[in-house]
Design goal:
Elements: H1 8-30, H2 47-54, H3 62-70, E1 73-77, E2 83-87, H4 96-113, H5 125-145, H6 149-153
Antiparallel strand pairs: 1-2
Helix pairs in contact: 1-5, 3-5, 4-5
């Protein structure tokens, strides 16, 4: 989607999405869901550790079900070296929390790093709004699941 096309509400929603996504990843770090705990290395959030801790008790809420149904696509290298989009593949038996976390990151990655062309979905403001709003709501659900609301919402 071209910068000029991102108007008003969608522009604010994109900002809100990045804000809440960043807050959630900070909350993961503050909650000790870290890729590594080696002293002196950069602190990076570990979605994997979060999922490992909560996947057995997780029940998808309305936002998570909507995100799963929306099936965000990821950008891939296509035949001939070009770029294309495809639904995120999941192996059989992958738990819902792992799927939801992967799809939330896919929305972030595609919005931030993707080419914004080559997929009908990313040129569709209505679909973008659905994915952004839904993922923000998913982050809210996950913050509650992990008791990360204080850091996520900055409520000290």
């Amino acid at each position: 989607m071209q910068h000029e096309v991102v108007q008003g509400n969608l522009r604010q929603l994109a900002f809100d999405f990045f804000y809440w996504f960043s807050r959630f990843e900070y909350a993961l770090k503050d909650g000790h869901f870290l890729r590594s705990e080696v002293v002196g290395i950069p602190a990076e959030p570990s979605w994997k550790k979060f999922c490992q801790r909560y996947r057995d008790v997780y029940k998808p809420g309305p936002a998570a079900k909507a995100l799963l149904d929306a099936s965000p696509e990821r950008q891939i290298v296509a035949t001939g070296g070009g770029l294309d989009f495809e639904p995120v593949p999941f192996n059989p038996g992958v738990r819902d929390l792992d799927k939801v976390a992967e799809l939330a990151r896919t929305v972030r990655n595609t919005l931030f790093h993707g080419g914004k062309h080559g997929s009908n979905f990313w040129d569709d403001p209505t679909r973008m709004e659905l994915l952004l709003r839904t993922t923000i709501d998913v982050l809210d659900e996950l913050a509650k699941l992990g008791d990360l609301q204080a850091e996520y919402r900055r409520e000290y």
